[in-house]
Specification:
Chain A is an all-alpha fold. Chain A is built from 8 helices and no strands. In chain A, α1 crosses α2 (17-25). Chain B contains 10 helices and 10 strands. The N and C termini of chain B lie close together (10 Å). Chain B is α/β, with parallel strands linked by helices. The chains are: A mainly alpha, B alpha/beta. Chains A and B meet through α1, α6, α7 and α8 of A and loops of B. The structure holds fe (ii) ion.
């Protein structure tokens, strides 16, 4: 419902070192500036990439956020798949999963 | 005529950030060699500035105020916004040329209501190509963006007209300009389907691009593109604008769908100016 606000939070976090400092110093105070649902705020508190993906966050925004959190690439892909298993299909946006969750990358399959 | 070089190449964070995870290192290195050849072609053409037509991923523009087209107008840019270790590219300043940008923008404005930006943070969409094309960051960059991320997106015929306007702008200045469009063709980046590539779709698009077949290039609609080529396919706008700017057929120098760890088909091509 407030996907716009959720993505705006992540957009500003991703690009602005000042916002990143505030995120580290006092996440709750930062969250207050955005009109987020409890589910969205909770996903941000937990760094729950899988739920954020299901909520419809644009993959580019989510990918940069995952990098900010220090999440390794294949773990990032798996977190989105796990999010779908747990919460169902992507609810909004243009980054829905099109396959059945299989990997398209030999390097991931061969791990 | 002061457009001295025009080409297209792929961008994706994996191209630099996941280089060490690639299994087919010979193919990876062949791709890098073609990017290096693009660098020398640009240098040999005597280019004094590089216009990069990019499709950024929410580094500067968001749905609060989304321009269909924007040109950077600063003497200095900054990037990457991403974690440098993740991207494999250190954060740094990148030179621009505000005066050149202003002259280009004024000319483009005669036919296109382009936005301009006096600050601009580059993401992987520009930083990855620059990592190969201007590794010493010694050439002024003019960043240009076409919104390919936040629909509604500009229609393809408008992207063509924007490319033509850019060409007129390049030809109106004294500096020798190189122009490179970066994008993906079909890809599903940053999703669990990352690495999925529709190679026949890519090759058909590249055939249209290299033949300079305007009617065929503009004969895509976003619903079908989304189905066949993913949300990443929306980035064909940058390649189409480059073709319009070049105004001539081109030569496909490299394409592979066999580096899925990069999450995009890897393309290097130049227009035969
Ligand atoms: Fe992209």
């Amino acid at each position: 419902m407030s996907l716009y606000q959720l993505q705006k939070f992540l957009y500003e976090l991703n690009r602005d070192s000042g916002v990143q400092r505030r995120y580290q110093a006092d996440l709750e105070e930062l969250l207050e500036e955005y009109d987020l649902s409890d589910e969205e705020a909770g996903a941000l508190r937990d760094g729950d990439v899988g739920l954020l993906y299901v909520l419809g966050v644009n993959g580019q925004i989510l990918m940069h956020y995952a990098a900010f959190l220090g999440i390794e690439w294949f773990d990032y892909l798996q977190m989105m798949r796990t999010g779908i298993e747990k919460h169902g299909a992507v609810r909004d946006g243009i980054y829905a999963m099109t396959g059945g969750g299989e990997s398209f990358t030999a390097e991931e399959t061969n791990r | 005529m002061s457009l001295v070089y025009a080409g297209v190449c792929s961008h994706a964070p994996g191209i630099t950030g996941r280089a060490n995870l690639v299994e087919n290192t010979a193919l990876r290195d062949e791709f890098y060699e073609h990017l290096e050849a693009m660098r020398t072609d640009i240098a040999d053409a005597g280019a004094e500035a590089l216009v990069v037509i990019a499709a950024e991923h929410f580094a500067n523009f968001f749905m609060n105020n989304m321009p269909a087209y924007c040109i950077g107008m600063s003497d200095k840019y900054y990037g990457p916004i991403e974690d440098p270790q993740w991207l494999g590219i250190e954060k740094r300043d990148i030179p621009g040329n505000a005066d050149l940008s202003r002259r280009l923008t004024i000319e483009v404005m005669n036919t296109i209501d382009v936005a301009y930006a006096e600050e601009w943070k580059f993401d992987h969409g520009i930083m990855v190509p620059l990592n190969f094309l201007t590794p010493n960051y010694d050439m002024p960059i003019v960043p240009v963006n076409i919104n390919c991320q936040g629909p509604p997106l500009t229609p393809l015929p408008r992207a063509w007209k924007f490319g033509e306007a850019l060409r007129r702008a390049c030809d109106s200045v004294d500096e020798k300009i190189a122009l490179v469009a970066t994008g993906g063709i079909s890809h599903w980046p940053a999703t669990p389907d990352s690495g999925k590539i529709n190679e026949p779709w890519d090759r058909d698009f590249l055939d249209r691009l290299m033949r300079h077949d305007k009617a065929a290039l503009l004969d895509y609609d976003d619903v079908q593109t989304y189905a066949d080529a993913g949300q990443g396919g929306f980035e064909i706008r940058t390649f189409i604008a480059a073709a319009a700017a070049a105004g001539v057929p081109g030569t496909l120098q490299f394409y592979t769908a066999e580096l899925p760890i990069f999450a995009v088909g890897c393309t290097v091509a130049k227009f035969d100016l």
